[in-house]
């Protein structure tokens, strides 16, 4: 009886801080097979598929389908549910067995074949199909389809204002802000959204807000939503002005001009008390909100682009202390970062062709400084095939250029922005660009870089910046818009498209944890781009041009 390798429980992960919280989706996998090997004498095989998570050399069972009697082309009804995380390489093994004894013991069953793949390959393919293998030979095939759980997503866009709110400050008026809470099953409430506060006014007008209905009410139209108006205080003792209650079903029916009376529970019922002001809906719309997976399964492709710092501050590549040194037993930080990030993104780029550039080096034969050059030496076609192709071009380039300076990143950012803009003009909104920029120091063209990022914020692209080495990267944090959108003068970015991290923070956790952090924002950045700026549905073949 032929058996696959033994199945053992996977050990705990490596030490160090846990990876950051990120988007997790539940995905249902539907499995079918064709042309299975027949191992039964008087009937056909009775197949069952067991799905494993592959973690190093260990296997952990996720689930198994039902057993189908006498079939070499089974279509399994039972779906396998898995947690999908875009920012991780999630390796799965699909093992098919011929179950004869009725107790579903795979250790006593005949092994029909296996397919090992990444979950990212499955969700990006739509209908994933691969051969089933046993001892290096193909025996039939397996098809896997992925469907995201959660139903249709919506978002509410509202502009609200307050009218004649209660005065709470002794020496001024009030500094009002709103909080939206959804009711839980036990009757308690949890915060779903908070607005900014408006200084010293009883008639505030808050910025337009957008709230996902899953976060607001778990997509349940009848879930109670409590809206509270508070007076902000610098010491944290914020005062409740009042509150009102609504539901998604009500919000879907109201029109601009709708007024909600704000009541303070402590004052309610007192003589002559009417309310503590009003909240007026100036604008409201509820729109279909497509998810990252819907865009991916609708044909969206992630185009991976790499930019590498070749400035002299990296050190002589022949010196073991250099950040570009290639002779050590451990790959240098540039190599590790490219591999970790590229291994995730490659599942979402069908042609495996990745433009790769360097900046800050002198190039032969003229030895002029270039702030953007092709790693493969071909300025007309900078594409490298696969992650090994990028690394091969990088290693070869290190030995043929002279590291110099300064550290100017804006030319490469501008070039990728040009690619994204041309893709839109050519009616290819399905192309989304992810630039991985690796640098060992502070950018000397910071102002130009900020300008380029602001321009790129309205294009289908994201920028990942990894600081290599031990330099002080504190000035680079401003490019990451976690505390507010990037701006210069009156110009402001349309959305946050930059994630910056120093590589040294992940020396103990490993490059996989680096990839998890820098990639965790990509799904939201992509869906925000298409939902808010382009309004493109996930069926890209129906797309008919960039926004007017």
- Tell me the span between the first and last alpha carbons: 65 Å
- Structural class comes to alpha+beta
Could you give a short account of the major beta sheet?
7 strands, mixed
How many strand segments? 28
**CATH level 1 class label of the largest domain:** Alpha Beta
Counting copies of identical and different chains, the oligomeric state is single chain
CATH architecture of the largest domain: 3-Layer(aba) Sandwich
What name does the CATH topology of the largest domain carry?
Answer: Rossmann fold
Task: Catalogue the unreliable spans.
Answer: 1-22, 543-548
Shape: flat
What is the typical, i.e. mean, pLDDT? 88
SS summary, helix count? 10
**Whole-number count of domains:** 3
Gyration radius (Cα, Å) is 28 Å
Strand content: 25-35%
Measured as a percent range, the helix fraction is 10-25%
- CATH level 4 superfamily of the largest domain: von Willebrand factor, type A domain
Summarize the structure.
The protein is of the alpha+beta class. It has 10 helices and 28 strands. It has helices at residues 119-125, 213-217, 248-251, 292-297, 333-345, 386-398, 410-425, 446-456, 511-519, 522-534, and strands at residues 25-34, 47-55, 58-64, 80-84, 91-98, 110-118, 127-134, 137-148, 153-163, 176-183, 189-194, 209-212, 225-231, 239-246, 259-261, 278-289, 301-309, 353-359, 361-363, 368-370, 373-374, 383-385, 402-403, 431-439, 461-467, 487-488, 491-492, 498-502.
């Amino acid at each position: 009886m032929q058996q696959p390798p033994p199945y053992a429980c996977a050990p705990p992960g490596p030490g160090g801080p846990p990876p950051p919280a990120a988007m997790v989706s539940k995905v249902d996998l539907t499995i079918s097979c064709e042309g299975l090997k027949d191992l039964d004498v008087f009937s056909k095989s009775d197949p069952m598929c067991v799905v494993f998570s592959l973690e190093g050399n260990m296997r952990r069972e996720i689930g198994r389908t039902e057993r189908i009697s006498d079939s070499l082309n089974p279509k399994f009804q039972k779906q396998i549910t898995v947690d999908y995380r875009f920012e991780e390489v999630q390796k799965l093994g699909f093992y098919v067995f011929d179950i004869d004894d009725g107790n579903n013991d795979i250790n006593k069953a005949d092994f029909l074949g296996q397919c090992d793949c990444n979950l990212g390959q499955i969700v990006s393919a739509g209908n994933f199909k691969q051969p089933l293998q046993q001892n290096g030979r193909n025996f039939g095939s397996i098809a896997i389809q992925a469907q995201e759980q959660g139903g249709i997503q919506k978002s509410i866009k509202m502009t609200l204002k307050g009218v004649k709110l209660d005065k709470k400050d002794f020496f001024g008026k009030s500094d009002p802000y709103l909080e939206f809470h959804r009711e839980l099953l036990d009757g308690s409430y949890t915060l779903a959204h908070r607005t900014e506060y408006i200084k010293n006014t009883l008639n505030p007008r808050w910025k337009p807000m957008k709230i996902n209905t899953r976060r607001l009410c778990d997509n349940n139209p009848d879930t109670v939503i409590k809206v509270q108006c508070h007076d902000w205080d610098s010491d944290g003792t914020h005062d409740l002005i009042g509150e009102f209650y609504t539901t998604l079903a009500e919000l879907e029916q109201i029109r601009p001009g709708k007024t909600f009376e704000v009541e303070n529970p402590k004052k309610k019922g007192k003589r002559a008390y009417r309310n503590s002001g009003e909240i007026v809906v100036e604008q409201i719309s509820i729109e279909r909100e497509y998810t990252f997976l819907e865009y991916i399964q609708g044909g969206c492709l992630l185009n991976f682009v790499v930019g590498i710092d070749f400035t002299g501050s990296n050190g002589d590549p022949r010196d073991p202390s250099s950040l570009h040194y290639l002779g050590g037993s451990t790959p240098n930080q540039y190599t590790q970062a490219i591999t970790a990030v590229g291994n995730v993104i490659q599942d979402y780029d069908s042609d495996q062709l990745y433009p790769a550039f360097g900046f800050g080096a002198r190039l032969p034969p003229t030895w002029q400084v270039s702030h953007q050059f092709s790693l493969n030496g071909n300025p007309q076609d900078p594409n490298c095939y696969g992650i090994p192709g990028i690394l091969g071009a990088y290693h070869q380039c290190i030995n043929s250029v002279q590291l110099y300076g300064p550290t100017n990143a804006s030319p490469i950012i501008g070039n990728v922005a040009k690619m994204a803009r041309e893709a839109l003009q050519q009616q290819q909104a399905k192309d989304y660009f992810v630039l991985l920029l690796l640098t060992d120091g502070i950018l000397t063209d910071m102002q130009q870089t900020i300008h380029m990022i602001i321009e790129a914020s309205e294009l289908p692209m994201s920028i990942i910046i990894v600081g290599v080495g031990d330099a002080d990267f504190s000035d680079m944090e401003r490019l990451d818009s976690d505390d507010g959108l990037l701006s210069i003068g009156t110009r402001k970015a349309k959305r946050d498209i930059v994630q910056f991290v120093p590589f040294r923070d992940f020396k103990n956790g490993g490059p996989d944890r680096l990839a998890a952090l820098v990639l965790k924002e990509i799904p939201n950045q992509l869906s925000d781009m298409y939902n808010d700026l382009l309004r493109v549905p996930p069926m890209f073949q129906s797309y008919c041009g960039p926004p007017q």
